[in-house]
Amino acid sequence: MRSISKFRVLASFVAAIGYSLFMYIIIWVSRSDMFFPFLAGLILLPAAIGTFTTLLFDPYLKHSLAKNIGFTFLVMLCAVLLTVIFFAEGIICIIMALPFFVPIGMVSVLLTRSAMKPFQPNNNSKHVARSVAFIIPLLMLPIDGLLNNPTETAFVTTEFLIKAPKELVWKHTTSIAEIQPNERVWSISHNIVRVPMPIDAKMLGSGVGAVRHLRWTKNVNFREVITFWEENSKLGWDFEFDQNSIPAKVEAHIDVKSNYLDLASGEYELIAIDQNTTLLRLTTTYKITTPINSYNRWWGNLFLEDFHNGVLSVIKARSENQIISS
Fold this sequence. Notes:
Shape: elongated
Number of domains: 2
Largest sheet: 7 strands, antiparallel
CATH topology of the largest domain: Alpha-D-Glucose-1,6-Bisphosphate, Chain A, domain 4
Radius of gyration: 25 Å
Strand content: 15-25%
Number of helices: 8
Order of helices and strands: HHHHHEHHEEEEEEH
Strand order of the largest sheet: 1-7-6-5-4-3-2
CATH class of the largest domain: Alpha Beta
CATH superfamily of the largest domain: START domain
Structural class: alpha+beta
C-alpha cells in the first residue's frame, strides 16, 4: 500500500507538471503578439494549476491544506525551471508573474478543497472537475484577444547635475565608449532581475537622420534614429528594433514593439546652469495597452529609471573626470 501511495504521488506530480507545461506552451509560447493573455495566462492558468494539482494529489482530502499548497507550489517551481531550461523563459517575466501566480495558486487550492468536501466520497465529480479545470484557461484565451484594453502613454525622466560645461557633456552623451565594470552603478533591474545592461552607443552621422547604434549585454542591440538635433542642447530619437535585437533567450515574451507595448522615443536635454555646470535630462516615452497598465507601468518605470541612472552616471563621471584631468 505504501508503494502504491508513493506511486500515486509521483504520478500526480508528473501529470500536474505536464499539464502546467502544456498550458504554458499553448498560452505563452504559441500565442500571437497581437494581445496580452491576461485572463488566460495570469489569472486562470495559476488557478487551474492549483485546482488540477489538488484534484490529482488529494482527491479524498486526506492531506492538510498546507501540504496541498506545498505540493502545488513545488509543481509550479519545477514547471518554471523547465520553462527556463527548454523554452528560454526570461527571469523578467517570471518575476513579474509571481505576484499573480503565488496568491492565485494558494487561493485556488483553498477553494478547490472547500468545493470538494460536499462531494466526498463521490469520485465521479472529481473527474468532471479535473476536466473543467483542464480546459478553462483555453476557453478564456480567445476572450483575451477581444478585450478593448486602454492605451496609456508613460514618460520616465531622470536628471543629473554635472560639474562640466554643456559642450563637454554633449560630447560624452552623443557617443558613449564601452562602459567598464567599475563605471556601473548597482540597481535592482541589473543586479537582481538581471536585465541586460548598456555597453556602448556609437553615433553614425550628425543631425536629423543620423543613427546611434547601441549594444547591451546578452547580445541585445538596437538603433536610435535621430529626429531632433540641437548642437550641445537637445537630442531626440525614435527607437528601432530588428527581429533579433532582443534574443529569445534573453526575453521571449516581452516584445518592445508590439500591440501591447511600444518603446517609442527618447530625448536628451542639456541645460546650462552656469558656465561650468550642466543639467542633463533623459526622458524615455513608451506606450502600453494591457488590462493591467498600472502594474506594467510600475515595472517599466523601474527598469527605465535604473537604465537612466546607469547611463547618466557614466556620462557624469566621464565629463567631470575630464575636467579634473585637464
